[in-house]
Amino acid sequence: MNDLDQLVSAAQADFAAAATPAELENAKARYLGKAGQVTELLKGMGALSHEEKKTRGAEINQTKQRIESLLTERRQALAEAELQAQLKAESLDVSLPGRQHGMGGLHPVSRTMERIEAIFGSMGFEVADGPEIEEDWFNFTALNTPADHPARSMHDTFYVDTQAPDGSGHLLRTHTSPMQVRHAVQHVKRHAAALAAGQAMPEIRVIAPGRTYRVDSDATHSPMFHQCEGLWIGENVSFKDLKAVFADFFRNFFETDDLEIRFRPSFFPFTEPSAEVDIAFASGPLKGRWLEVAGSGQVHPNVVRNFGLDPERYIGFAFGMGPDRLTMLRYGVNDLRLFFDGDLRFLSQFR
Ligand code: PHE
């Protein structure tokens, strides 16, 4: 092996040892750079005779070409390796399972609200909505509960501003009953012409579900809770209609006919007579236990008057029930606070 062949072998080994393009360029400089071994050989040609220049020159040029082509080969190999490494690093594993998108769901109490609206809707009840910051007048006074009425102290109230004696103050509504007055007044306004002409007014049949507030907090009471008001006023609406509506509603809501309903005498300033409504299941874990689910009664004549109607002609009933309680019964939940803690481990079970 002559010196030139050795030079080619050395270059080949050097190039092969270069692991990166930068190392390869360094190796190239050692042979083909300004002070590289091949360049030095070419520089040394000046000292040779004319004949020697011819043969030696051709050999050196050949050597240079061989080294250059080895360099190109190695450059391509390194570029290819780099590409492969990059492809490997960025590879997609198409067999991996896809990412799940969380599906939202309705809050259990919202589900109950929707059920209540659907069932009462099927019985011809409209759905009304009203303010949670309520006027003293609608929350108490118009409901036959004047400022000095002792029944006001049954509601531990969140007052928003100082209570004026004329009932113009504001508070977080303690029940949905103010919606009785708000809705009935609107209804009477809409039918004012017929009423003035002594004609019959279409019946008021409405429910008003929504949030209510009292200063109260334990396993079965939350300072914010839900109620659903009901009101049915006509010329001949009686307690037997109330009982039929409740029987229909609760049997539908709990999807069972094995359910008893009991009216227990009670007191509310805005109904007379008044009754608490209890239900009892004939089977299941709560079998035979009376559970309080609503307050109700025949609307007091003073309240009917505040609707703008003649209590001698218009009569009917109202009720207020607790959708939170109904949700607990339906799903077997024993702590009301779970509904309002916002813990997804609990809530996602109802999706
Ligand atoms: N508003 C009453 C309460 O919150 C319930 C009720 C509504 C009673 C309508 C009678 C008629 O306790």
CATH superfamily of the largest domain: Bira Bifunctional Protein, Domain 2
User: Tally of extended strands?
Assistant: 9
CATH architecture of the largest domain: 2-Layer Sandwich
Q: Specify the number of helices.
A: 12
Determine the CATH topology of the largest domain.
BirA Bifunctional Protein, domain 2
- Helix and strand element order: HHHHHEEHEHHEEHEEEHEHH
Please, what is the average pLDDT? 92
Q: What percent of the residues sit in helical stretches (DSSP H or I)?
A: 40-55%
Q: What class, by secondary structure content?
A: alpha+beta
**In what order do the strands lie side by side in the largest sheet?**
1-4-5-9-8-7-6
Q: State the end-to-end CA separation.
A: 83 Å
CATH class wording of the largest domain = Alpha Beta
Beta-strand residue percentage: 15-25%
Q: What is the domain total for the residues?
A: 2
Low-pLDDT sequence parts: none
Task: Evaluate the radius of gyration.
Answer: 45 Å
Largest sheet: 7 strands, mixed
GO molecular function, one term: tRNA binding
Enzyme class: ligase
GO cellular component, one term: cytoplasm
Cofactor: Mg(2+)
Q: Any overview of this molecule?
A:
α1 (3-17) packs antiparallel against α2 (21-32) and α5 packs across α11 (323-331). This protein has helices at residues 3-17, 21-32, 37-43, 50-89, 108-122, 136-139, 178-190, 192-196, 239-253, 301-307, 323-331, 344-347, and strands at 126-127, 133-135, 170-172, 204-213, 224-234, 259-268, 271-281, 291-299, 315-321. The chain has 351 residues and is α+β, with helices and mostly antiparallel strands. The mean pLDDT is 92. It contains 12 helices and 9 strands. It is 42% helix and 19% strand. The strands form 2 sheets. It has a 7-stranded mixed sheet, with helices on both faces. The protein folds into 2 domains: 3-89; 108-350, Bira Bifunctional Protein, Domain 2 (BirA Bifunctional Protein, domain 2), CATH 3.30.930.10. Bound molecules: phenylalanine. Residues 175, 177, 268, 271, 295-297, 318-320 line the site of phenylalanine (PHE).
